[in-house]
């Protein structure tokens, strides 16, 4: 009989013991040959792994894969405490101390960020407007589209590369202009620039970046790495003109104009935290407390209109993209005003403007364009952001005609817990692997082979029919 305390001492790659069905095994030598990799075994090293092992292994697997001398004896049941069992259940909880190697999807980064960010920073990054309906709808829209995969196609070689505004990118993915990255890491947007440059992606830098545009440009892998600049139009137009010229002088390749922020949404989570910080939890009578979002947005002009594109055109010759299109009518107007691209976006659910059902999901707006103005899909580049978390999300957007999709919050989360540039690169590698796998399973060897025929967006189309009737 072996004391469970003795088993617990053997919890490393150098000496790894497991308890299975009350029996103790030394699996140290088996770590390197385990089909699922060593990490899953090490997660339960020194503990009882029966509950995790049993559902996925057939009877006799232990005897088949382990030598006879790996069996060390039976664990003394009197020494197995409830605390030890609980440790097995909580060992894999993602915390600010989670190693980057343990991150396996984009949602993991979010869980770690929630643990590692200050309450103020977490509220600013994660919050949506009011009841956060739009933020939730962004994700649900992708879930309402299913894939119709093709089989028996040679998918040995998968190519995910494409072009955005004439610039090469390794995937149809770009970094959305998310502000205040220094909340997550001291190098902020500079760490993002370096990380995405090494992975071949394009970054759109926010007007509200916590690093200067010059510092971000200097953080690039090389001078050929493209950077775009996002503009919030200031109430003082001359300041916006100067900012465009500054960005152009720094070497950016395009200007993205955000148009969905004439009135800043009320991010209640952000404002509750701000109220607690400024007033010790008590708001003085008659005093309005604004969160970081509304404070930063105070400079944005509410007078922006289609006519403002004239002075922007006179200020720069760079390609123009309008970010924040939320209906097919405005998509058509954007094309008629000669911009090179549009971003279908509700600002990540941060701006709920419609009083009935809030701002609709960008994927639904893309479906509107498919149905009512399909000519736009070949006349200009169309992007979307909001709710993209999986390779299948990218696949679905491209199948509906999107040139590329944007990631905002996930890149900020990837910086946290000290991950920095390495976190950014890990996130991109995870997403690339998912996209390549999804393309292969769908029967597409390159982006050109991803077509509308691969989708069944029936539930999304029902939403569209309901919207048209409304």
TrEMBL record:
Residue ranges constituting the FMN hydroxy acid dehydrogenase domain according to the UniProt record: 98-460
Predominant cellular place of this UniProt entry's protein: mitochondrion
Top-level taxon in the UniProt lineage: Eukaryota
A single MF term (Gene Ontology): L-lactate dehydrogenase (cytochrome) activity
Catalytic activity: (S)-lactate + 2 Fe(III)-[cytochrome c] = 2 Fe(II)-[cytochrome c] + pyruvate + 2 H(+)
Ranges where the Cytochrome b5 heme-binding domain occurs: 1-76
One term under GO cellular component: mitochondrial intermembrane space
Protein name: L-lactate dehydrogenase (cytochrome)
